[in-house]
């Protein structure tokens, strides 16, 4: 990342949304490079070297999922996709194609900042390779494979730990059902969503004060799960 304020590449054809994003990002002191189609967005990716990309899935010149895939081929940059309510399926496909998180339009600037901060932290975290994750009362020691709530160790099975490990790597960001199932159980189980319901249910009983109203292990309806991180 640059020493200067993070540079966000904004690929969005709707000028009104672009204006809103620009104002809202500039208010935080973040810098913006903007493109109104996929072609100029991909060109700016090379010339401007942004820290993060905000990608609208409904662009005039290229399919949003193809753009998400292309961005992932070209770089390891965090990508936040913007989707309309009518594009639920596209949003999931874009996440599976390598995008890191999404916002559904319309969204507020508070939500936008929380998502971007989680994204930029993901980058900082992979550089620091931090081995302990903490949020609220929850502490996960990745190196020693131990989990604590308010300082007390909680017994976790190996599969539960693998699920937690993936969520920690993406702390504050959504992880799709497909990603979780593929990484924990393998490609042949990517449609077995009941595995996740069972194991996430068990984890919530172990880690949440009120499993019915989770504070750490959040459900993203129809998409996946998100581990809450401070500020997300
Ligand atoms: Ca659009």
From TrEMBL:
Name recorded for this polypeptide: Response regulator
Q: SMART domains recorded for this chain? A: REC, Trans_reg_C
InterPro entries under this entry?
Answer: CheY-like_superfamily, OmpR/PhoB-type_DNA-bd, Sig_transdc_resp-reg_receiver, WalR-like, WH-like_DNA-bd_sf
Q: Out of the domains of life, which is the source? A: Bacteria
- Domain (OmpR/PhoB-type): residue spans on this chain: 130-229
Q: Where are residues bearing 4-aspartylphosphate located in the sequence? A: 56
Which of UniProt's keywords are assigned here? Answer: DNA-binding, Phosphoprotein
Question: Which positions fall inside the Response regulatory domain?
Answer: 7-120
Provide the residue ranges listed under DNA-binding region in this record: 130-229
Q: Which CDD domains match?
A: REC_OmpR_KdpE-like (cd17620), trans_reg_C (cd00383)
In terms of PANTHER family, this protein maps to: KDP OPERON TRANSCRIPTIONAL REGULATORY PROTEIN KDPE (PTHR48111:SF50), REGULATOR OF RPOS (PTHR48111)
């Amino acid at each position: 990342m640059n020493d200067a304020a993070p540079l966000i590449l904004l690929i969005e054809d709707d000028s009104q949304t672009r204006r809103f994003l620009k104002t809202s990002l500039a208010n935080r002191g973040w810098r913006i490079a903007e493109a109104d189609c996929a072609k100029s967005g991909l060109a700016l990716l090379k010339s401007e070297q942004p820290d993060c990309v905000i990608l609208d899935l409904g662009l005039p010149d290229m399919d949003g999922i193809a753009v998400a895939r292309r961005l992932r081929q070209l770089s390891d940059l965090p990508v936040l996709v913007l989707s309309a309510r009518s594009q639920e399926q596209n949003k999931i496909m874009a996440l599976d194609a390598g995008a890191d998180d999404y916002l559904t339009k319309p969204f507020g600037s508070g939500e936008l900042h929380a998502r971007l901060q989680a994204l930029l932290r993901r980058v900082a975290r992979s550089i620091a390779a931090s081995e302990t994750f903490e949020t609220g009362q929850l502490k996960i020691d990745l190196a020693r494979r131990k989990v604590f709530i308010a300082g007390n160790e909680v017994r976790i099975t190996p599969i539960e730990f693998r699920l937690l490990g993936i969520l920690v790597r993406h702390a504050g960001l959504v992880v799709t059902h497909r990603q979780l199932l593929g990484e924990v159980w393998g490609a042949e189980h990517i449609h077995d969503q009941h595995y996740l319901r069972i194991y996430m249910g068990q984890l919530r009983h172990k880690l949440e004060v009120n499993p019915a109203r989770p504070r750490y292990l959040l459900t993203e309806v129809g998409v996946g799960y998100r581990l809450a991180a401070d500020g997300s």
